[in-house]
Design brief:
- The protein has 962 residues and is mainly beta.
- The chain has twelve helices and 74 strands.
């Protein structure tokens, strides 16, 4: 394998602390002019190499620090849930975390890295709140290592300035500077009695120092390469790990060499003792990437953990001794495994992955990419997903068996060719040779400031330009003489794949930062960044932060605003600005014109000038404050709420279990109180209040109330099933839509009188009865429901859009050429559903175009984009829990051997009991949606992917297992 194993450098984001209006204004006083918002991606896990991990003393949480500039606090009892601690960052290296230590009491973290504020500081941060507690200044280069003393009074740091420093934390002052090492210091630790400090350096030595006076006690020589890891056992024994592959033991009082514990055959990247000191886990800095568990002091290998596919620079033993954590691999995951068996128990990871392959269709209308690891540089591995970008931006979907010719990297073009080879001072493939008829015409050599090596490269189709990607996001254009033309600036991780469109206008690239990016080749302008989560959610954004996204894709990006190094930054999820920044049409225009600036100019000619993000953030409404406290448990359904809202609030939305109460317009320019009366349902109620204006919306205020009612009755299920297979225009007939509606109704009728529902009321409207007036009249059937009931609207048939992208349901008597007068606007259905009092489910299968054996109706090109439809229905203003049969502009498939559409087939199978994952005899909404998504993707061979969305509401039961 010719490529370097050192890879994966990225950047990321996630949650926030609620801000009062005063704090919001203070943030802008601090930084609005000097610190523009920085867009961040949060895939749910780390996006760059993880440098340190630590368990909290109770073993309930794991803290991880990464080059992606964030610290995550993982709740081990709730897998996948993590808080994020942030600090000041800027473009490039600024803010990268190279070291983290957790105080013995678990309350404070010390963080170091590339923090130039103005010199290299160490940040002390409250683990619970993220608040900055102090900055330790003194080092003159980056911080590589940190450790607390056992009593938490002192901190030791190791730096690229070749010194280690001991700090008094009570007074936040420097105690001693430890001089003597002649290279970077990557490893530091205290002895258990807190009286000595050990340091390890790239100069191959360890040194033992006195904490009391900072004097050198011993120079510990013997390693023959860089010392990158130290750990100290409870009895004071020091273990050191080196790039010479060995682990050595030393006397913690004298520094005397005891023995070589092991030679693990790879560079040692990290060391951690078990709580009793009898076992030692080691990470790796080179291939093969197995982690090891050693017996101490005899050196027997107890376990070899093979779960990682790349280097592991962070290890930790849980204080209770029951788990080992190792962090690394190509996708920067944290594996928690049993030290007794070596078996994986839990994995902490995000939903992304390094992008190893890219392509662009020959007609330039689609991008494609894949996550399959390559084994050689510039290797064209399998493409897995595609994204339509013309004539309009679509949604990512599995590539499946699509018959598309993809343009990939061109390393050979006529008599010209490109070839990488070893070179430079860092052991990588630093040389790219430009050859003509086999003869070298020019060489491009890279170093530490321009990407180290050439990992992905291609000619443009005319052969005049070479584009090459390297480490740390470097992506550069050269001419055939090897002269640099300029950089494509945007990626934050190693570039693994590039491809240029056949007309030479667009470049697509894939990176370890987990994104796909689209560029204008001529201007080198970034046009679009794309991220797809493994759960199917996605987001694509322009450099200024205008975006298109799946129903929940807003949650994966946001903006950080620095408030200076002494303060934790503010963070704003993109969803707060969806009213102004969710602009799929503008994103399409950026691609069409090859320039965001030109697209914005054209867009703004049709509307007033858009606010800058800084102004938009200043104009955001503050989170509503509840002035009258409500008890956790109440016995009255009607509850009066009094809110305080700020002068930026123009609309207040209050939802109960996801259903909106009436919004309130507030025209006053001063803070005011608003009274709202809500009606609770029996049991636990989730309440949310959001302040909104034309700019965006506040962070929600959320709380729960338990309404205990003595004579509670079971709810009634109201089911309206609409299915249209037979149309007045027979050329667009479907085969199974009417059967789908009837069968769903038959299945749910069986729930009458069971433990979930008092009764099930059903109305079925199909084929000739499903006229425009027939459907609109049938919607009134749902008006009978009360606050405590559940309404389910099932629709199967054709959904279409007009030239203005207005969504319509096509009834039996509809004419696709006269939609306005003959079809039903989805907004009319939306308006009716949002006025209903109880929970409302909408299951829609309205993107039919093909059968499982093929064939296309003349409506195929005009099917609706379900992403936009789902987003509209799922908004807090509507409060509908929507489940749609397909993603984006995918088509819903019918199958003769199923006798149903794929979506209905999966629903029926799930309702038969296959979706009862916890085997409790009840099928919950979340279980059914999970099952249907998996089942539909499987039976359609990846051609169809259902999507679900809705406002915040607790999971609830839909049916019992027959």
């Amino acid at each position: 394998m010719s490529m370097s194993i050192y890879s994966i450098r990225l950047q990321m984001t996630q949650k926030i602390i609620l801000l009062s209006l005063m704090l919001l204004l203070a943030a802008y006083t601090h930084a609005s002019s000097a610190s523009p918002p920085i867009l961040q991606l949060d895939p749910g896990g780390h996006k760059a190499i993880i440098k340190d991990i630590a368990f909290t003393p109770d073993s309930k949480y794991l803290v991880s620090a990464s080059n992606d500039k964030t610290i995550r606090v993982w709740d081990l009892d709730h897998p996948g849930q993590a808080r994020i601690l942030r600090g000041q960052i800027r473009a490039g290296q600024e803010g990268k975390i190279y070291a983290m230590a957790l105080a013995p009491d678990g309350r404070t973290v010390a963080v170091g890295g590339w923090f130039s504020n103005p010199n290299d500081v160490i940040r002390l941060q409250d683990l619970a709140t993220g608040r900055i507690l102090g900055l330790l200044r003194g080092h003159t280069n980056v911080i590589y290592a940190l450790a607390f003393s056992p009593d938490g009074r002192y901190l030791v740091s190791g730096s690229g300035d070749f010194t280690a420093r001991i700090w008094d934390l009570q007074q936040q002052r420097l105690l001693h500077t430890l001089h003597g090492h002649t290279d970077d210091i990557y490893a530091v630790a205290f002895t258990p009695d807190g009286q000595r400090v050990v340091t390890g350096s790239d100069d191959h030595d360890l040194r033992l120092w006195s904490v009391a006076d900072g004097q050198l006690l011993a120079r510990m020589s013997g390693h023959t390469d860089k010392v990158r890891a130290v750990a100290v056992a409870p009895d004071g024994t020091i273990a050191s790990g080196s790039w010479d592959h060995t682990i050595r033991l030393w006397d913690g009082r004298t520094g005397a060499f005891i023995k070589q514990l092991a030679d693990q055959g790879t560079q040692v990247g990290s060391l951690s003792f078990s709580p009793d000191g009898r076992r030692l886990v080691s990470g790796v800095s080179s291939a093969p990437t197995h982690c090891h568990l050693w017996s101490v002091p005899d050196g027997r290998q107890l376990q070899r953990y093979n779960g990682h596919d790349n280097i592991v620079l962070a290890t930790a033993f849980a204080p209770n001794g029951h788990l080992v954590a190792t962090a690394g691999g190509g996708n920067n995951v944290i594996d928690l495994w049993d030290p007794r068996t070596g078996k994986l128990q839990q994995q902490l990871a995000g939903g992304g992955g390094a992008v190893w392959s890219v392509g662009i269709s020959n007609d330039g209308n689609r991008l494609a990419w894949g996550y399959q690891h390559m084994t050689a540089l510039n290797q064209a591995t399998t493409l897995e997903y595609q994204l339509p970008i013309a004539p309009s931006l679509g949604s990512p979907s599995s590539l499946g068996q699509a018959n598309v010719n993809w343009q990939r990297a061109l390393a050979n073009l006529g008599a010209w060719s490109l070839q990488h080879r070893k070179g430079g001072n860092y052991g990588g493939d630093a040389i790219l040779e430009i050859r003509h008829n086999g003869q070298v015409q020019a060489r491009i050599k890279r170093g530490p400031t321009d990407g180290y090596d050439h990992r992905a490269y291609s000619f443009t189709p005319n052969g005049q330009t070479i584009i090459s990607g390297g480490g740390s996001g470097v992506l550069t254009a050269y001419n055939r003489h090897g002269q640099k033309l300029g950089d494509f600036v945007g990626h934050t991780g190693d570039i693994w794949a590039v491809a240029v469109a056949s007309d030479g206008k667009l470049l697509v690239s894939g990176s370890a930062d987990q994104t796909v990016r689209l560029w204008n080749v001529a201007t080198r302008e970034l046009l679009l960044t794309i991220f797809r989560h493994k759960n199917g959610e996605w987001v694509a954004w322009t450099p200024s932060g205008y975006y298109a996204a799946s129903p929940n894709g807003d949650n994966m990006i946001g903006w950080q605003v620095n408030r200076g190094p002494e303060y934790a930054p503010d963070y704003y999820p993109a969803g707060q600005f969806k009213q102004s920044r969710y602009q799929p049409d503008l994103v399409t225009k950026v691609i069409q014109l090859g320039s965001e600036q030109k697209a914005l100019a054209a867009w703004q000619r049709r509307r007033k000038k858009a606010e800058t993000l800084t102004i938009a953030m200043a104009n955001l409404p503050a989170t509503p404050r509840l002035l009258n406290g409500i008890q956790d448990t109440v016995t009255t359904a009607q509850q009066r709420l009094v809110f305080a809202v700020d002068q930026n609030t123009r609309h207040l939305i209050v939802t109960v279990n996801g259903r909106p109460t009436r919004g309130i317009n507030t025209g006053s320019n001063t803070e005011r109180t608003i009274t709202q009366t809500i009606t609770l349902s029996p049991g636990i109620n989730q309440i949310q209040a959001i302040a909104r204006n034309k700019t965006g919306e506040s962070i929600p205020l959320n709380w729960t109330v338990n309404y205990q009612v003595p004579n509670w009755r079971k709810p009634t299920l109201y089911l309206l099933a609409i299915g249209i297979s037979s149309y007045a225009d027979s050329s667009i007939n479907l085969r199974y839509a009417n059967i789908d509606a009837q069968t769903i109704a038959e299945r749910l009728r069986q729930e009458t009188g069971n433990k979930l529902y008092q009764q099930v009321k059903v109305k079925i409207v199909t084929d000739k009865a499903a006229t425009r007036m027939g459907i609109l009249d049938a919607l009134s059937f749902l008006n009978e429901m009360t606050q405590d009931d559940l309404a389910l609207l099932f629709i199967a048939g054709h959904g279409v859009t007009d030239s203005r992208n207005t969504f319509y349901l096509l009834p039996h008597d509809g004419n696709h050429k006269r939609l306005f007068t003959t079809a039903i606007r989805w907004t009319d259905i939306q308006y009716h559903l949002q006025g209903l009092p109880g929970k409302v489910l909408l299951w829609t299968d309205t993107c039919h175009a093909t059968g499982i054996a093929g064939g296309t109706t003349k409506l195929a090109a005009r099917n609706i984009n379900t992403v936009s439809l789902v987003r509209e229905f799922a908004d807090a203003d509507t409060g509908v829990l929507i489940f749609a049969s397909s993603t984006g502009d995918e088509k819903s498939i019918e199958g003769q051997h199923w006798g149903h559409g794929a979506f209905t087939k999966a629903l029926l199978d799930g309702l038969s009991g296959q979706a009862d994952y916890d085997h409790d005899g009840i099928i919950h909404r979340s279980e059914l949606e999970t099952y249907v998504k998996r089942k539909v993707a499987k039976i359609t061979r990846g051609r169809q992917h259902p999507i679900a969305a809705g406002t915040a509401v607790a999971d609830f039961a839909i049916a019992t297992v027959p």
